[in-house]
Structures are given as C-alpha cells and as structure tokens.
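Reference record
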Amino acid sequence: MVCNLIVFQTHVIFWQTKKWVYIIDADLHNVDANEVYLKKRVCSVYFSENNRSPGTNRLKCNVIPTLNFPVILSNPDTPKATVVAIPSVDLDLCGKCPDDNVVSSPNTNVQKAIVKPSIDLDLSGVQELNGDLINLIGDASDANNLSLHAMSINDNDIKSKSVDAIKNANRSIIVSKKQHRHSGFLKNIYVRRVVDLTPKCRHLYKNALYFQRQMTNANVKKAIFKDRLTAATKFSNVFDVKISNKMTVAGLLFTRLQLHETKKEKHGRRFTGDKKMLSLSLYKCSPQCYRLLSKLFTLPSLKTLSNLLSNVPITTGINPIAMKVLKSYVEKLPPSQKYFSLLFDEMSISADHALVFMVRGITKKYKQPIAYFFCQESTNSHILSKIIIDVICEVYSTGLHNKEYRYDIYEIQRNNKYFQIIHLFDAPHLLKGIQNNLLTKNLIFTIDNITYEAYWQHIIDLYRKDSEMENLKMLPRLTNNHVIPQKFSKMKVKREAQIFSQQVSSLMAFLASQKIIDVDARGTENLCLFFDQLFDSVNGSYNKIVDSKKYRTAITTKSNHFDLWEKSLPALHSMAFIDSKSQKRQRPPTVKNWEKTIRGLKAIFTFLHSKGIKSVLPRNLNQDSLKNCFGSLRM
C-alpha cells in the first residue's frame, strides 16, 4: 500500500511535531525535534477524512493523528502485538465529560479489530499516553471518533486517568480557541492562509468576502433605518395627537417640510407638490423675504420653483388657468376688496411686441397677469378695443364684482347691459412725454394768473454749474444720462422724476436769484415744482407723510389732493409747446391725458368713498406692477 505523505512548513506546524511524536512513536522522544521534522513523515492512514480541509489536499489546523496508532498497557510484561484493538472512545468536544465506559473493563472481549497487514506498528512508548496526550488531542477542535486500539486492561488506574485526561482535554479546547482564534471563512474550513486554497476555492473565497461585506453594510443600513423608523413613528404619534391639531394647514405643511428635509443633503431633498406650491406662494408674496427665509429654513430653490412654473401650459390670449385661479381667490374676498384696475401695456421683445394684461387690486394688494398677445409694432386701436372688452368680460365672470354692487359700480341701467369704464394713463409715462417735448420745444403755461416759459437749456445750465465742484454737488443724483439729450433713452421713465423734483426747483430758484444762471429760469423752476407735486399726488404709496411729501400719500377726504388738482387743471389746460423754429403753438396728447387722469382719479375716489372705502393709494392704479413683470421676464 502506498501511503500519502503530508508535508508542512516548519514555521507553521513545527509546534505540532512533539505532539505527534508523543502519540505515534515513543522511540523518538529523545530525538531532536528539528531532525524528526526534517526526516520523518506521517502516513495519511493516521488521519480521518474529517481532518482534511475542504477543497484542498491539506490537513486542518491543529489536527493530530487519531486512527490506527498503538496503545501500550501499564503492565510492562504485556507483549507487543502488531494488531490490537479496544472499544473506541468518542471524545466529547462540547465540554461534557464521557461516562465511565470510556475504557472497557478488564473482562471486555475484543469484538472489532482493525487489521493493517502492510503496516508494522511499533507499540513501544505508548505507555506514556497520559493527561498530556489527551491535552494534545484536545487541541484539535474536530478530534472526533478517536479510536484507541488496545488489549484488555486489568489496571483500574487507566480508567480513572482516562476520565481525568478527557476533562483536561475539554479545558484545553477552550484555551486553544482563545489562543488560535481566526475570523472569517478560513476558520470554518481550518485553513490559515488564502494561498493554501485551490484556485477555484480562492475565487469562491473572494466572492464570499465581497458578499459578506455587502451583507454587513445592508445590516448596518437596516439597523439605522429601523432606528429612524422607530423614532419617526414615536414622534409622529406625539405630533399628530398633541401638535398638528393646533396648527393651520399651511403651518402644518411647513413644519413637516422642515422635519423631513432639513437633515438631508442639499441635492437629496425631495419636495411634494403641496410643499412646492406653499413655497411658490411665499416667493410671490415677497421674493426678497423668500431669499431670507431660504437661509433660515429648508425651502425649495428658485430653480425648482422656476421649473414648476415652466410646467404650466400658457398660450396667447386670455389664460383660462389664470382666470380659474383668480376666480377661486376672489371668492374668499369681502366685497370691499373686489374692486380692481385693469392694466395693459406693450413690451418690446426680439420678435416684435407683446401686449400683456394684468389685474391689480385697488384696496388690497394682489396682482395677476391674465392674458398676453403678440403683435407687430403697436397694436391697432380697433383690435385693442375689442381685446379690452373681451378681457373685461372674462374678469367680470370671475366674481370680482359682487352682484349687489354691480349696478352702482358701473352705473348700469336696468334696461340695458352697458357700464362706464374710467380710463387712466400711467403717470410716469405722462411725465416722460412732458420731458420729450421740452427737449425741442419751449413750454408756456399759467399758474395763479402768472405766465411762465420753461426751457430745457436752463436744466442743462443748472447741471453744469452744480458739477463744477464735484465734492460739493447739490444734485448728486443728476448725471449726463439725465440731462444731456444725446446720452439718455427716451423710453426710460425712471429719471424724469429726478429731473422734475423739488430739489432741482429749489436750487434753480436760488441760482437764478443770485444771477448765477439766467434769471428767466424761474419759469423752468416753477414747472419742476408743479410736476413734482402733481406726480406725487397721482403716485402716492404711503398712508402717512414721508420726507415732508404731503402729496405722496393716500387719497382721503381730508388730504390735499383735491385742492392741488383744482389748481392743476387750469394750469394744464393753459400749457402749450412752441416750436423754436416755426413758432407754432402745439398742445400734444400728453397734456390732455394729464387732465383725463386727474378727472378719472377724482371720479374713482368719489365712487369708492360712497361704498365705504376711506382711502385709496394712487400707485395701485399705475403700471408699476406690469413693468416689474416685464423686468422679470427680461432677466
């Protein structure tokens, strides 16, 4: 029979050499361990199949020979035999002590014998098999089915020593596990190194490690989510019972938004449609306030809100979605807040022009673009008239006008369906028209029975005198873009209010009195003061007097607006522009539109006052809201 020889590296199993010597051959006890390790080999018949590592041709770690080794009885006169046998002893590796029948009694008959005729076993030296041997056997965690072949034993000491030895073996197993503890899959197959595996097993080992890491990560995530779920469930119960019932719908939605999204990464936040609509409502109320709130709380970005608005289908003409939203909003308003002004203007775009209509509240701040149309150049008056009528009818259908006020508001006759529309002009554009005409023409007008003549050249002279000393300028806001005709745009309406102002009028009057500029500039000085006060009266936005501007306030029965308007109407009626070349008197539509606007404001306030409204802010009737809308579209 050819034996399979097992070869091990010295630094790995050299410590096992002495153990094997004690078990197999007592004649080698006095031989140097290095010599035994280098020259001797152990046949594979001494090891069971359980001692081999799965997938390899190597032995498991810490195994010892457990089969076919000789046992010498304590009686030295017992002759050696080639083949001997005793009932097998099964070592319990779980720490349980074997019963008293571990070693057979002296009268036990030999029932089984293992015969190996091709191997001559030397039984010498086995008499030293004592507690040390059992300890060596116990070091192997898989030392199962240890079969000891011996003859009948008449010595009772063997029995007691065997029991004690097996108890010591159980303790040795625990110590061995502590000293040779290896984590991972290799421990289960009793392999120390990955290189000892076959290529196929090595591949399976790497895959097993990968999936083990994946499973560990999944378990960690599961534990985290489980804790979060437990905490969320606990908090949800408390929140729903004790807190949510005491909050408004908007407050509850905002609170949930903070609780759900604050701890998430910036790009990992997800907002529901209701949360986006709430944030969009906050943004529309005040974009500046929304930017501040975004720094303090977790809110959707402006890009998210813009994408939300881009999903709304909008086409030319009257927008049915805007009308539906406006109708639902108006249903909640009291009758006194259902008065509105209809604004429309054309915006120059790269295609050509866009005509936009917007609804703006008079007594309450709300605004809503409701329609837009593309047109070539300016809209034809006949087409514009038809569009205005259609838009007014659609706005009326939203319920902005309560039925009980219907007849009074528009002075509707009971036998027909006609009503009066009060038409107003935008005050900044009217002021711009006065300036554009004054650039090329002189203006003659009468105030308090005194006739004056205004020149644009007086404003240029004032600006140049004021600019001679840069550090002591009295008019720091005026620049070349305000005064020099070649450097400012005729369509910009921002700078006209800075030209026709009380500050310019006061400085011009002083310089004219000191003859620093032309004395005839008193006419231009009175014109600047006149339009400063008139513009404030039709553009007021405060309920109180601010910066000593008594006309830049709300229109009330006790305000000074009506006195000023009574004086202004004759002055406007007397205004005429004289062409410096032809000396012809012209009265452009700008002057006439000023008169219509003043009469319209008086009529509007008289009617609203009769309905219980005590004050009206004139700025709610101009086109500032529409211009701001154009500005946001151009950005």
